[in-house]
Write a structure and sequence with these properties.
The complex is a heterodimer of chains A (367) and B (328). Chain A is α/β, with parallel strands linked by helices and 367 residues long. Chain A has 15 helices and eleven strands. Chain A is globular. Helices cover 79% and strands 0% of the residues of chain B. The longest helix of chain B is centred in the middle third of the chain and has 35 residues.
C-alpha cells in the first residue's frame, strides 16, 4: 500500500518536472518587471538582447531625463521582430529593424513615418546614412533612423593565429578542421560563401550550386553552429573553436571582456548591415519616442556604450570624432574604403528567402 | 446532498481499493461491493455530478490540446501566417514541399533512428536497475534509490545539458579521467557529435523507463518465479520465459514514452550535436522561432504525427499477434 502511494507521488513529480523543463526555450528572455510608481510612464523597447539600449547607464540616463521606466523585450531574428510587432500592435514604442527589413515593416504598415524636423540630432547623421533610399517610401516619408552599422566577418583567436588573417578562406583550410563556428543563418552563410568564391554581388549569385558546394565544404571544418553572441563567446572561451564568422560589435565586446579575440574584414569583403530605430505604429508614447531616437544617435550615448561595453560603428561623424584615435571603429571600420569594401544587406523577395533557406537546410542536413 | 455524497465517497475509495486487491490476488470480490458501486454510480449519474467530475479534465483537454492542434492543422494548409494585413490562401504546398526535397526524408529517418537508439540504450540501462529495485532490494532501500533516479530529473533541461557539455568536452571530466588512468587518447571528441546527442537524450529519458519497468516488474507475483525454480528452471530460463514476457507491457509503455519525445527533440541536438545536430525537430523549431514559417513548421509536425501513429499502429498489431500466439 505504502509503495503504491509512492509511485503516485513519483509519477506526479515526474510529470511536473517534465512540464516545467519542456517549456524552457533557449535564447528568449524577458526583463523582470520592478514595481512601478503610478506617475511614471513605461516606455517599451524592442531590441536584440545586450545591444546597447539595455545597458544600465542608458536605462538610468534616459529614465532620469524624462522620468520614464524603460522596459525591454528581445528578439533573436529579424523575422521574430516582425512577428512581434505584427501580433502585438500598439504595444511597443520603438524597435530596431535592420534596414533590409525596414521596407517589409513599412509595406505592412507596422511603423510610423518619422518627422525628422522634430529631431534634434537628425542633421548630424553622415549623408551616406541620412540619404539611404531604404529608409523612405515612394512618397519620400522617412521611417527609420540609422543607428549603428557593422560587418559580419571573421573573428579569430589571437593566440592561435598570431600573424592575423587576411583571407576568409582560412575557414576552409583543412588545418582548421573542427575549429570553426558559423552563424546559423541562411542569408549570412550564403553571402559569406559567395564572397569567398570571389563573387562581389552575392545577393545575385552567379552560380547557386557552386555556393552550395562551397558551404558543404565549409561544414567539413565546422565544429558547431552558433545562434547568439553569448553562445559564440562560450565556445570561444572554452577553446572549442578558434575562429568563425561573427559580428563586429560583438567581437569588440568579447575583446573588452578579456577574450583573446580579434576581428578582421578579409580581402574578399564581408556582409555589412545597418540597424535603424523605428517608431511602432500607434506607439503609446510617440513624443518620448522622438526623444529616444535623438538620445540613441547622440555621441553622449554612443561613446559611453563603445568605451564601457563595446559597440558597432556609429552613423554620425560627431560620435566617430569623439572616439580615441586608435579605436577600431574609428581607425578601421569608419573609413570610407571600408564602407566600399562591404556588401550591405539587401531586402530579399520571399521567393529568394525560401530558396536560400532550403539550400541552407540541405547543407545542414548533409551532416 | 453534500454530506450524503461525502459519506458515500469514503466507502467508494475503500471498496475500489479492496477490489484491486482482490483482482491482483486472482480471487473474485464479494458481491456486496459491486452492488454498492452500482448504487453509487447510479446516484452520481442522477445528480449530474458525473458531468461536474469529467468537465474539468475534458474541458482542459479541449482547450489546451485539441483547439491549438486544430489551429495548427489549419495553419498547415495556409500560404502564410494570417497576422497583420497579409493575404493568405489555402494550399497543399507545405505538404508537397516535404516530399519534393529528399533531405527532409533523410532528416526524418535520422530522427527516427535517434529515437530507436535512445529507447534501446534506455532499456539496456534501466532494466537491470528496475529488476534489482523491484525484486532484490528490501523496501526501505527503494525510496532512497528512487530519489537518486528522480533528483536529476528535477533540474532544468538546459542545466542538465550544459553540465553534460562540461563532462564530455575535450579537457572535460571524462577526458581528464582517461588521462589520469593512463589512457592518452589524442582527442576524445565526444561533445558536438552524434553520440553526445544520444547521451543527452538517454540521460533525460531513462527515468521514465526505470519507473514503468519497476511498476510492471513489481506486479509480477514472486510465487511464479519460485514455482519456476522449484520446477527446475535455470536462472536464465526463469528470466527469459517468465519474467521478461510478463514485464513486456512496462518495456512497451516506457518505449512509447521515450521514443515519441526523442524523435521530436531539438534542444539536445542543438546544444550537444554540433554540426550533426540538425534533425527534423530542429528544422521544425527553425520554422517557428527563426523563420516564422508556421505553416511549414505545422505541416512538418503533422507529417511526424502521422509517422508516429503508423509506427504505434504497427506495434499494437504486433503485440496483439504476440498475445494471440501466447494464448494458443
Amino acid at each position: 500500500m505504502k509503495s503504491k502511494l509512492m509511485y503516485l507521488i513519483v509519477i506526479g513529480l515526474l510529470l511536473i518536472s517534465a512540464c516545467t523543463s519542456s517549456s524552457t526555450q533557449p535564447g528568449t528572455q524577458k526583463v523582470d518587471e520592478p514595481v512601478v510608481s503610478t506617475e511614471q510612464v513605461t516606455f517599451r523597447v524592442l531590441n536584440w538582447n545586450g545591444y546597447g539600449s539595455d545597458e544600465a547607464f542608458a536605462l538610468e540616463e534616459f529614465g532620469k531625463m524624462y522620468n520614464v521606466k524603460i522596459e525591454h523585450d528581445y528578439f533573436n531574428s529579424e523575422e521574430e521582430l516582425l512577428t512581434k510587432i505584427r501580433t502585438s500592435p500598439a504595444t511597443y514604442d520603438v524597435l530596431l529593424p535592420n534596414v533590409a527589413y525596414l521596407q517589409i515593416a513599412m509595406s505592412e504598415g507596422l511603423v510610423e513615418p518619422i518627422d525628422v524636423t522634430k529631431m534634434k540630432n537628425w542633421e548630424s547623421l553622415l549623408p551616406r546614412f541620412k540619404d539611404l533610399p531604404e529608409l523612405r517610401d515612394n512618397a519620400g516619408n522617412i521611417y527609420g533612423v540609422p543607428w549603428v552599422w557593422g560587418a559580419t566577418a571573421v573573428a579569430y583567436n589571437t593566440e592561435k593565429f598570431p600573424e592575423g588573417i587576411t583571407s576568409m578562406n582560412v575557414l576552409w583550410d583543412p588545418a582548421n578542421k573542427g575549429q570553426v563556428a558559423v552563424f546559423d543563418s541562411f542569408e549570412d552563410e550564403i553571402v559569406f560563401a559567395g564572397l569567398a568564391l570571389g563573387d562581389r554581388t552575392p545577393y545575385q549569385p552567379d552560380d547557386l550550386d557552386a555556393v552550395k558546394a562551397k558551404l558543404m565544404d565549409l561544414m567539413e571544418n565546422v565544429k558547431t553552429l552558433w545562434a547568439s553572441e553569448d553562445e559564440f563567446n562560450k565556445l570561444f572561451a572554452n577553446g572549442d573553436i578558434s575562429l568563425g564568422n561573427y559580428w563586429s560589435g560583438a567581437a569588440s565586446r568579447a575583446a573588452k571582456m578579456g577574450l583573446p579575440m580579434a576581428f578582421t574584414v578579409p580581402q574578399e569583403g564581408a556582409l555589412g548591415w545597418i540597424d535603424t530605430w523605428a517608431i511602432a505604429k500607434d506607439a503609446p508614447n510617440k513624443d518620448l519616442a522622438y526623444k529616444w531616437l535623438d538620445y540613441m544617435i547622440s555621441s553622449q550615448f554612443y561613446v559611453t556604450w563603445d568605451t564601457t561595453a563595446g559597440a558597432p560603428t556609429p552613423t554620425t561623424q560627431k560620435s566617430l570624432d569623439a572616439l580615441p584615435e586608435d579605436n577600431f571603429n574609428r581607425a578601421v571600420m569608419g573609413t570610407p574604403e571600408m564602407i566600399e569594401h562591404l556588401v550591405f544587406m539587401e531586402t530579399m523577395s520571399p521567393e529568394t528567402r525560401e530558396e536560400w533557406n532550403r539550400l541552407w537546410e540541405e547543407v545542414k542536413a548533409s551532416q | 446532498m453534500e454530506p450524503a455524497l461525502g459519506r458515500s465517497e469514503g466507502i467508494t475509495i475503500n471498496s475500489t481499493a479492496a477490489d484491486k486487491e482482490y483482482k491482483t490476488s486472482g480471487a473474485k470480490p464479494p458481491r456486496r461491493n459491486s452492488r454498492q458501486k452500482q448504487e453509487i454510480w447510479r446516484r452520481l449519474k442522477n445528480q449530474g455530478v458525473l458531468w461536474f467530475l469529467l468537465l474539468p479534465g475534458y474541458g482542459w483537454l479541449a482547450f489546451a490540446i485539441f483547439i491549438p492542434l486544430l489551429i495548427m492543422f489549419v495553419f498547415s494548409f495556409l500560404s502564410d501566417v494570417p497576422f497583420g494585413n497579409r493575404v493568405v490562401e489555402f494550399t497543399f504546398k507545405n505538404y508537397t514541399d516535404y516530399f519534393s526535397r529528399s533531405f527532409y526524408w533523410k532528416l526524418t529517418s535520422k530522427s527516427l533512428m535517434t529515437g530507436c537508439y535512445t529507447t534501446l540504450y534506455s532499456i539496456l540501462i534501466a532494466y537491470p536497475m528496475a529488476l534489482v529495485i523491484a525484486k532484490v532490494l528490501p523496501n526501505r532501500w527503494r525510496s532512497a534509490l528512487f530519489m537518486l533516479v528522480i533528483v536529476p530529473f528535477w533540474s532544468n533541461t538546459l542545466v542538465r545539458l550544459y553540465s553534460w557539455a562540461i563532462v564530455l568536452r575535450n579537457g572535460g571530466v571524462i577526458d581528464l579521467l582517461l588521462q589520469f588512468l593512463g589512457f592518452k587518447p589524442a582527442t576524445l571528441d565526444i561533445l558536438y557529435s552524434y553520440p553526445a546527442i544520444i547521451v543527452g537524450l538517454v540521460h533525460g529519458y531513462v527515468p521514465y523507463m526505470i519507473l514503468t519497468l519497476y511498476i510492471s516488474l513489481d506486479r509480477i507475483d514472486n510465487s511464479l518465479l519460485e514455482a519456476a525454480s522449484s520446477l527446475g528452471a535455470s536462472w536464465w530460463q526463469t528470466f527469459w520465459r517468465i519474467l521478461f514476457p510478463l514485464s513486456l507491457p512496462g518495456v512497451i509503455s516506457g518505449s512509447i514514452l521515450i521514443f515519441i519525445p526523442s524523435i521530436g527533440s531539438f534542444i539536445e541536438p542543438r546544444l550537444l550535436g554540433g554540426r550533426s545536430g540538425t534533425m527534423i525537430g530542429t528544422i521544425i523549431e527553425d520554422q517557428f522561432i527563426q523563420l516564422f514559417n508556421w505553416p511549414f513548421g505545422a505541416s512538418l509536425s503533422f507529417i511526424m504525427l502521422v509517422i508516429v501513429l503508423l509506427l504505434m499502429g504497427i506495434m499494437a498489431l504486433m503485440l496483439a499477434r504476440m498475445r494471440l500466439l501466447r494464448t494458443q
